[in-house]
């Protein structure tokens, strides 16, 4: 099966700083791939480049067989930004209804995504009065509306209670089983265990690209966080 | 571009406004109060100065208010990430801009109808020409204000900066539009500048309506204002980038 995302030699320079440096990577179709690394390592920039909203300096980004950001991809890729990009002065349902109209999907999609993110009781609540975690779930629901083939999620589980986090990771796994490619970023290393595949990033470069088990085995440690540290030390030597 | 998307944006903007009762009240009531204040100021003076200044003020309200409202709302949309999200979806730039222009144009129509109603009905503003055309001029001004507001929001990083565009772009137009000093009596350089400012044509249109001059003149002034609005919308569309740094 062809890769859902295929980057080659992607470089992004922003404000004179090299945020991404000659990055080559692929994201396999129909799996949950975790993009992990400390804050500021270039995760969001990489995700933005994949969605096609980031101006890139050089290199190529191909998504679902087309150049990133091309017109045909706009309803095939679902994107959730790090800060909740929804209207704080509208209710949950009004937000979802608006984006559903933009995407050209029916009103039944609104009910579907609202229950997928466990916000059924909050449909008529104004988003501005919801908690941070609830707000980011509204934003996630928008990304799910068009049943995209590729779902790009920038730190979707930040600020959520553990129960909810587990239920969202279960949702990602279900979506992947149904054939959706899910690319999730996180700076919380213990979430890595829930991914089929991991991309570990540091300072704009990829330091590992494998399954969680293989990464731990190669580093000879029991958890991904230690593996990350071991990889960083290895590089420094 | 598609009507479905344009209407979706317009509907959403109006829905956001509907939830903000205070803003609606201010949008609709303030112009009426201000025009009443103008009438009261001139009340004890001889002559028909209210008739002289009233129409000009009616042209300014929708322009100023819509400029402010639009520059702040679209700035919020840019900084809040919703614009980026929309542009990563199948949303045309034209749909986005026209949606805003449509929504605020409708609000302006309501606002102007009220202000004109109060001026003509209660305060006895004498207008020789068509009162309905007065409202049309006001709507054209509002759309112009919306279009300019959309454009300048690209050059502001904060809401403070956005609001500062009002003294930069709006007040010079108010000063040079002919309300304080007839444009023909301005120094040559200022007159030349006033000739390329849209507000001058809006006030000219109102003046023609007041004096009952040829309706053709009014329509050509409206066309100039509308032309400026189209140019501002096109410039606004250029500032909407799907890819940003």
From TrEMBL, chain A:
GO molecular function, one term: ATP binding
InterPro entries found in the cross-reference section: AAA+_ATPase, ABC_transporter-like_ATP-bd, ABC_transporter-like_CS, P-loop_NTPase
UniProt domain ABC transporter: residue ranges: 5-228
UniProt keywords, alphabetically: ATP-binding, Nucleotide-binding
UniProt xrefs under Gene3D superfamilies: P-loop containing nucleotide triphosphate hydrolases (3.40.50.300)
Pfam families linked: ABC_tran
CDD domains (UniProt xref): ABC_DR_subfamily_A
Taxonomy, superkingdom: Bacteria
PANTHER family according to UniProt: ABC TRANSPORTER G FAMILY MEMBER 20 ISOFORM X1 (PTHR43038:SF3), ATP-BINDING CASSETTE, SUB-FAMILY H, MEMBER 1 (PTHR43038)
Protein name: ABC transporter ATP-binding protein
Automatic annotation (TrEMBL), chain B:
Family: Belongs to the ABC-2 integral membrane protein family.
Identification of the protein by name: Transport permease protein
Source species of the chain: Nocardioides dubius
Membrane topology annotation: Multi-pass membrane protein
InterPro entries referenced in this protein's UniProt entry, alphabetically: ABC-2_transporter_component (IPR051449), ABC2_TM (IPR013525), ABC2_TM_bact-type (IPR047817), ABC_2_transport (IPR000412)
Record key words, sorted: Antibiotic resistance, Cell membrane, Membrane, Transmembrane, Transmembrane helix, Transport
Chain ranges passing through the membrane: 24-42, 54-75, 96-125, 131-155, 162-181, 218-240
Chief location: membrane
Annotated ranges, domain ABC transmembrane type-2: 18-243
Annotated localization: Cell membrane
PANTHER family, sorted: MEMBRANE COMPONENT OF ABC TRANSPORTER YHHJ-RELATED (PTHR30294), TRANSPORT PERMEASE PROTEIN (PTHR30294:SF38)
